[in-house]
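Typical record is below.
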Amino acid sequence: MPELTTEVALNILTGWLQDNIDCGSEIIFDNDEDNTDSVALLPWIEQALQDVRDLRHLQLLQQARTD
């Protein structure tokens, strides 16, 4: 079983949210006033995933510079 890294977990969450959207799920993640559903949440999770990838890339560049 592969290691459950932040990137892997965000990929799983992204896929799950996309499945919710594709299936027309009506899951609300916060409350009935804000109505944060999968459609609203998905872009934020995608941005977090990109940020994690960017950070990993910067870490690799830093490591290469010090080697």
In short: The chain has one domain: 6-66. The chain is about 70% helix and 0% strand.
